Amino acid sequence: MPSAAIPPKPRAVAWRSLRLLTLRDLKVRYATSLLGYLWSILDPLLMSLIYWFIFTQMLKRGLGEDPYIVFLLCAMLPWVWFNGAISDSTRAFLRDIKLVRSVALPRWIWVGRIVCSKGIEFLLSLPVLIVFAVFSGAHVGWQIVLFPVAVLLLAALVLGLGLLIAPLTVFFRDLERATKLVLRLLFYASPIIYGASDLPEAVRPLAWINPLSGIFSLFRAGFFPDQLDWALVGVSTALTAVALIAGILVFRRTIGGVLKEL
After folding, report:
1. Residue 115: CA atoms inside 13 Å, Cβ hemisphere, count?
2. CA distance 113 to 93
């Protein structure tokens, strides 16, 4: 007698589904776009060029390090990942209500696919950083090996916050607009156009309660070793762990109510 087919393990199905949904998001986003991949780099590139022009050509700059365009891109590119993923997480369940209801998949996948698709866009934008680093003569140190660590920390932070925000937005729809407002403020409160060490003493504690501070210092460390502050990285790692654990706990406690609400 022929042996019965062995059904795939749930975990394998979940990861395969995550990959397929992530690829679907990327295809849908660029299927009708003439520029396609270029859109993933135009926004951070144009914003970086604007700030580079303002702070190097129009104003006397006392922020960051040279080459300033590389300094900007090292934080601007991961910020676009963070900003896009958190913003999209507010509609993680609301934009695909029928699929969420009908498809028997672990519900975290609807947040995970956003983290992954935005993360892939971030990786695809890295050639821009490399080109500017080469042409500006930026020095690369051994600290560049910390770049993947920064990627993992940022992914964990985005996932944790996404798991926290996605279900709560279903219950409190105003949270979507509130999140966008907070993200707008967080851009200027994070060391993107400046370094954490550039902050005045009176407001320097802001860097210590912002997990992006230590993560961005890791992204910059390969080109700007002086930006690396291990104490700040340690605090950011701890805050990231708290955000991830809180996100998982809130998600597990609320997902049942989310399905009923949808």
Report:
1. 21
2. 12
Query: Are the C-beta atoms of 14 and 105 separated by less than 8 Å?
Result: yes
Q: Which residues contact 42 (CB under 8 A, 6 or more apart)?
A: 35
Segment 41-71, tens digit of pLDDT: 777 777 778 877 777 666 666 677 889 899 9
Within 8 A by CB and 6+ apart from 61, the residues are 55, 68
Note the pTM of the prediction, 2 decimals.
Answer: 0.88
Query: For the purposes of burial, counting CB atoms within 10 Å of the CB of 104, is it exposed (0-12), middle (13-18) or buried (19 or more)?
Result: exposed
